[in-house]
Amino acid sequence: xxxxxxxxxxxxxxxxxxxxxxxxxxxxxxxxxxxxxxxxxxxxxxxxxxxxxxxxxxxxxxxxxxxxxxxxxxxxxxxxxxxxxxxxxxxxxxxxxxxxxxxxxxxxxxxxxxxxxxxxxxxxxxxxxxxxxxxxxxxxxxxxxxxxxxxxxxxxxxxxxxxxxxxxxxxxxxxxxxxxxxxxxxxxxxxxxxxxxxxxxxxxxxxxxxxxxxxxxxxxxxxxxxxxxxxxxxxxxxxxxxxxxxxxxxxxxxxxxxxxxxxxxxxxxxxxxxxxxxxxxxxxxxxxxxxxxxxxxxxxxxxxxxxxxxxxxxxxxxxxxxxxxxxxxxxxxxxxxxxxxxxxxxxxxxxxxxxxxxxxxxxxxxxxxxxxxxxxxxxxxxxxxxxxxxxxxxxxxxxxxxxxxxxxxxxxxxxxxxxxxxxxxxxxxxxxxxxxxxxxxxxxxxxxxxxxxxxxxxxxxxxxxxxxxxxxxxxxxxxxxxxxxxxxxxxxxxxxxxxxxxxxxxxxxxxxxxxxxxxxxxxxxxxxxxxxxxxxxxxxxxxxxxxxxxxxxxxxxxxxxxxxxxxxxxxxxxxxxxxxxxxxxxxxxxxxxxxxxxxxxxxxxxxxxxxxxxxxxxxxxxxxxx
Length: 626
Ligand code: GLA
What we know:
Layout: E1 4-6, E2 11-13, E3 16-18, E4 21-25, H1 35-44, E5 49-53, H2 56-59, H3 74-83, E6 87-91, H4 111-119, H5 142-160, E7 170-174, H6 187-203, E8 210-215, H7 218-224, E9 230-235, H8 239-249, E10 256-261, H9 277-289, E11 293-300, E12 311-313, E13 317-319, H10 338-350, E14 367-370, E15 373-376, H11 377-384, E16 389-391, E17 405-413, E18 419-426, E19 428-433, E20 436-442, E21 449-451, E22 457-465, E23 480-486, E24 495-500, H12 505-508, E25 514-515, H13 520-528, E26 538-539, E27 542-549, E28 556-559, E29 565-570, E30 573-579, E31 586-589, E32 597-604, E33 607-608, E34 612-616
Parallel strand pairs: 4-5, 4-11, 5-6, 6-7, 7-8, 8-9, 9-10, 10-11
Antiparallel strand pairs: 1-2, 2-3, 12-13, 14-34, 15-25, 15-27, 16-24, 17-22, 17-24, 18-21, 18-23, 19-20, 19-22, 26-33, 27-32, 28-31, 28-34, 29-30, 29-32
Helix pairs in contact: 5-6, 9-10
């Protein structure tokens, strides 16, 4: 059987030196019908290996569920990598960062939630709420390690049987992720935790080399690994200098940049990040010329489909955009970019590269859609709502066992309450009084209070988790309303709260949306648009649906100019969030979702003047720094 080892100087494949030239491609960010295409394009770039993280929460939405089918069929993904003649690297976490919801850690994992599950459903607030973070996470904690043992036992057998040592593609497996960057853990506990992960990994039959990866500085590299595990480093520039730093911590064996950042991720409200092809090419050239191995992060970024995006919070909460294009060599829709050609030319200097560039896709079909069916969210709450919890203090989303998305809270206010002040809102709440708009609480904007109309009534808060933090000490923090909710004269009590299954809206609301045409507003707007058949303006939160005919199987780019914020589905598949904040102005619609006749559905949280949407010829990821 083949072997893969870490030699004195090099990686050794079947005993011969092997330079790993790899690219990151997350199966969970790409439609499964497109996996083969993206893997093939990666090979045409000159790569010999594909690396993927495994997002634990993608497979385990609840503690007793584990799904390895369809989009989650990692075994099939690895088989496609092998079929293309490529090797594989697997990074199963348990924590992955990756700008993914919670860094891949399931929200049900965090001790507070575990405790609550053990106690049965409960109410009341936890003492550590406002501090953020969660004790036990990424530590040598029995409950955490026990859950990892179960996760590995469900996941790793499929990796074990695809190891190079059994004739499969998998060359090596990572333990943890940039653990040196995780604060607050004493050194001896760090080592004990990592050793336990190694033991749990080996227990599942993983016999290929294990490694760690850390940011390329002394502090991270010295804290993130174990003497007995091979160390790799993550960086996107100054290759020669960074390899020298890595060498100080990994005195023998091959040097590898496990994440060569050839682009960067985007956050809502910021510019679209790009790096020049020349810069990436120059740094890659230095790496390969030094004989180092590399994993391009990313070769193809893909999309945070559904509600899967993570967030950063270093003082200001910044959720990641739906697009994870990453300015990678293969664009979000899999097209080779200028960077692809620049990196391919560099790789060709050091290794054989197939003499066949990937196909350049043409423009996408352009289609206008009128969203002529609608329903106010308030009118369909019973169809979307999970069980209602009544409690004195406002629960968190985690208390409601709502691990992502939305929940609806309500409480009674009196005329002299005057102002609403929340300890924290994670991450946004649209506030109404007896159905009339009051305003918005917003964590990113540090907006934690609102004046109230001077009348008594039922206050509702539509609370949105915009993505769980994926990096740093806030991993594992609870979502929803956190801390006391007060008015001018008291703490608000008598709460009712329920999770909303908004992500399943197309199925749950199939018959509930009504034609908007014929209303007086519709007639007025139609007139303003020269008699066009246009439905009434959009006042959210509300659902909107329209149908459109187009080219089945073709990629599309949905542009929602004039809309504000919300979610978009095509044929019942949640594409992700849209936001007028930008930078991204288009949502990618993978071709496999598209039929001859299609349904577009939106949840608009705020408003739009005209209920029209457009599919445009090309993506628009927004303004860059320049
Ligand atoms: C680090 C992490 C990755 C990713 C990148 C930034 O290197 O290890 O998961 O978050 O940063 O894209």
